[in-house]
C-alpha cells in the first residue's frame, strides 16, 4: 500500500476514535456514492454528521482542512442527500472536517471543525 494511503487510513482511525470519545456514534466508514466518498457518517446526539478527514504528515503546504475544496464539498453534499434519502432522515445534519497532523514519531494533532461547509 502506498504511504499516502497508509497515512490516510491511520488518520481516519484516529479521527473515528477521537469522535467516539466525544460521544459520537459512528454509523458508516468510507461510505461511497458514485464518485463521492464520505469518510465517516455519525450521530452527534440527534444531528446526522458527515465527516471529511484530512491527514497530513506536515502543514508545510497548508493546513490539512484547507485541502477540502469546493468540488469535494459538492460531492459530499450530493452523497449526503442520497444517504439521507436512504435512511429517511429529514432533520438536522451538518458537515464537519477533522484535521489530523501526524508527525513521523506518530504523534497526532487533531482538530475538529464543526459545520465546516457553511461557516
Task: Give an overview in words.
With 119 residues, the protein is an alpha+beta fold. 31% of the residues lie in helices and 37% in strands. The protein contains 2 helices and 5 strands; from the N terminus they run αβββαββ. It has helices spanning 3-21, 70-87; strands at 25-33, 36-44, 47-56, 93-102, 108-113. A 5-stranded mixed β-sheet has the order 1-2-3-4-5. Strand 3, helix 2 (70-87) and strand 4 (93-102) form a beta-alpha-beta unit. The radius of gyration is 14 Å and the shape is globular. The mean pLDDT is 87.
Rg, nearest Å = 14 Å
- What would you call the shape? globular
Give the uncertain stretches in residue-range form: none
In the sheet with the most strands, the strands line up as 1-2-3-4-5
| Helical run tally | 2
Report the mean per-residue pLDDT as an integer. Answer: 87
Distance between the termini: 36 Å
Order of H and E elements: HEEEHEE
Q: What composes the largest sheet? A: 5 strands, mixed
Total number of strands: 5
SS strand fraction: 35-45%
| Class by SSE composition | alpha+beta
Roughly what percent helix?
25-40%
Defining traits:
119 residues; alpha+beta; 5-stranded mixed β-sheet; 5 strands; globular
Question: What order do the helices and strands come in, and which of them pair?
Answer:
Elements: H1 3-21, E1 25-33, E2 36-44, E3 47-56, H2 70-87, E4 93-102, E5 108-113
Parallel strand pairs: 3-4
Antiparallel strand pairs: 1-2, 2-3, 4-5
Amino acid at each position: 500500500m502506498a504511504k499516502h494511503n497508509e497515512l490516510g487510513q491511520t488518520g481516519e482511525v484516529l479521527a473515528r476514535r477521537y469522535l467516539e470519545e466525544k460521544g459520537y456514534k459512528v454509523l458508516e466508514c468510507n461510505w461511497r456514492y458514485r464518485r463521492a466518498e464520505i469518510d465517516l457518517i455519525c450521530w452527534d446526539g440527534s444531528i446526522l454528521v458527515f465527516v471529511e478527514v484530512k491527514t497530513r504528515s506536515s502543514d508545510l503546504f497548508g493546513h490539512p482542512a484547507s485541502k477540502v475544496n469546493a468540488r469535494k464539498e459538492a460531492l459530499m453534499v450530493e452523497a449526503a442527500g442520497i444517504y439521507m434519502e436512504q435512511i429517511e432522515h429529514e432533520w438536522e445534519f451538518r458537515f464537519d472536517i477533522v484535521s489530523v497532523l501526524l508527525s513521523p514519531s506518530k504523534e497526532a494533532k487533531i482538530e475538529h471543525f464543526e459545520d465546516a461547509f457553511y461557516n
